[in-house]
Design goal:
With about 425 residues, this protein is of the alpha+beta class. It has three domains: about 15-170 and about 230-320, BirA Bifunctional Protein, domain 2 (2-Layer Sandwich), CATH 3.30.930.10; about 170-225, no CATH class; about 330-420, Rossmann fold, CATH 3.40.50.800. It has helices at about 15-35, 50-55, 60-65, 85-95, 140-155, 170-185, 195-200, 215-220, 230-245, 290-295, 310-320, 335-350, 365-375, 385-390, 410-420, and strands at about 40, 45-50, 70, 75-80, 105-115, 125-135, 160-165, 250-255, 265-275, 280-285, 300-310, 330-335, 355-360, 380-385, 390-395, 400-405. The strands form three sheets. An eight-stranded mixed beta sheet has the order 1-5-6-11-10-9-7-8. A five-stranded mixed beta sheet has the order 13-12-14-15-16, with helices on both faces. Helix 1 runs antiparallel to helix 5 and helix 5 (about 140-155) packs parallel to helix 9 (about 230-245). The protein is elongated. The chain binds one RNA strand of 77 nucleotides through helix 3, strand 6, strand 10, strand 11 and helix 11.
RNA sequence: GUGGGUGUAGCUCAAUUGGUUAGAGCACUGGGUUGUGGCCCCAGAGGUCGUCGGUUCGAGCCCGAUCACUCACCCCA
């Protein structure tokens, strides 16, 4: 035997047994998003590398060490997209979508790529549901988006998750806070772990995300961003919270939600579960008013979020029964002539919209019945040479175990009539 | 990128201190009814024991390397 080729590490097949979960999640997402006025946009999985280094941030982990970047045959540097926002913004700018109206709501569902060490809930090819709103800078849309995210999770049948929100301030007021925090970290340097000391220089806000106990304890006395942000940012955050309260959306303010992408400002949020081990965020996002301009477009404000579909599937597997589908009808046949007639019959049934299965191998009736049973079909049509000669067919109801002989003519209508009596 | 755990049939797992031909359950195929499913009975098929190398008279078992999976760190969805 030749050695079989394996799938790429961290890139998984979604087998027919699992695909029902994915379809359920996707249709729930489309339904809710479209209901809120979002329209689908499909962008390529590869972009120029520059788009992500400019968009996501040069010093972020994603750009620094997780991107699938490569030189193509023309010598251009490309990358498989590690997230959707930069691509959507690129497309929005390139096609002048900002010209059409004040506000634009877009969504995308598809694969993303990051070269990380795989673990539960984290893969190298993973799938996101991503939504973005362009052109609105007020707090109302921030609240609506988080409200919608809660509905989305609920509509998918997932419970026991929490919405955590925070504000990062705007680039101006955050800069002041960064300096204050940096000096706080410098004063107490000996108490913090190595990672936190490294973060002090790269991205000081991320220390709040540290899981080391001693760091968390020290940070309790740290200066809080909320005390340093400007009046406009404070008012924005206050209004977001008021709207969420009025919408009845439950949330917790969590100063640890700082996000790892450079473009976020003001509102940030995550949907968190305690049932997935360490990969506990099933969705997250925030406001990024500066990104469109940074990518060469007009100064259009924006908010967006992404959800991790693998994590949603993991949660659904924990609490719901696996969705499955069954053909309505199975055609069993005996003898070559009858098999051909059964084959043609199955095509007619399908053409009329009835999900129909059959046995193509010409095996024993017993084995065909076994297959019919396993397929979950409610009805089995049995066609032998005897029935064929008399222009008849056996119609068996697998649930009631009753069987009768009916005319072959108009068998489709007969089957529908029998089925509608149930 | 760092650390821990695990690799035996399609799946879940066995295999005495290293000892002849590596087993079971589920799933699969056929039979038990000249043409009838779930339960039961019988039979069959399915493995280079992840891979390569080493130790040994002898390795599924011990050692090393490598690959993969997995969990955690990191980071994030």
């Amino acid at each position: 035997m030749m050695e079989a080729v394996q799938a790429i590490r961290g890139m998984n097949d979604i087998l027919p047994e699992q695909v029902g979960w994915w379809q359920g999640i996707e249709s729930a997402a489309r339904e809710v998003l479209e209901n809120f006025g979002y329209r689908e946009i499909r962008t390529p999985v590869a972009e120029k590398l520059e788009l992500f280094s400019r968009g996501i941030g040069q010093s972020t982990d994603i750009v620094e060490k997780e991107m699938y970047a490569f030189e193509d045959r023309n010598g251009d540097w490309l990358a498989l997209r590690p997230e959707a926002t930069a691509s959507i913004v690129r497309s929005y700018v390139q096609h002048g979508l900002h010209a059409e109206s004040g506000c634009r709501k877009l969504y995308q569902i598809g694969p993303m790529f990051r070269h990380e060490r795989p673990q539960k809930g984290r893969y190298r090819q993973f799938h996101q549901i991503d939504a973005e709103v362009f052109g609105l800078d007020g707090p109302m849309i921030d609240a609506e988006m988080m409200h919608m995210l809660s509905l989305l999770v609920e509509r998918m049948g997932i419970s026991g998750v929490g919405l955590h929100i925070n504000t990062l301030g705007c680039p101006t007021c955050r800069q002041g806070y960064r300096e204050v925090l940096k000096s706080f970290l410098a004063e107490r340097a000996e108490g913090f772990c190595e990672d936190c000391l490294r973060r002090r220089d790269t991205n000081p806000l991320r220390v709040f995300d540290c899981k080391v106990k001693s760091c968390a304890e020290l940070l309790e006395s740290a200066p809080q961003l909320i005390d340093y942000i400007c009046d406009d940012c404070r008012a924005h955050f206050g209004a977001v919270r008021q709207f969420l309260d009025k919408l009845g959306t439950r949330y917790a303010v969590n100063p640890r939600i700082v996000r790892g992408l450079d473009y976020y400002m003001r509102t940030t949020f995550e949907v968190i579960t305690d049932r997935l081990g360490s990969q506990n965020a099933i969705g997250g996002g925030g406001r990024y008013d500066g990104l469109v301009r940074d990518l060469g477009g007009p100064a259009v404000p924006a908010v967006g979020f992404a959800m991790g579909m693998e994590r949603l599937v993991l949660l659904l597997e924990q609490e719901k029964e696996k969705p499955s589908r069954y053909p309505r009808c199975f055609i069993a046949s005996l003898g070559e002539q009858a098999r051909v007639s059964g084959f043609l019959l199955s095509q007619q049934f399908r053409a009329r919209g009835l999900e129909t299965e059959m046995d193509y191998n010409g095996r024993s009736l017993k084995s065909q019945m076994r297959r019919a049973d396993k397929s979950g079909a409610r009805y089995v049509l049995i066609l032998g040479e005897e029935e064929l000669a008399r222009r008849e067919i056996q119609l068996r109801d697998m649930v009631t175990k009753t069987q009768r002989i009916v005319p072959l003519e108009n068998i489709f209508e007969t089957l529908l009539a029998v089925d509608s009596e149930k």
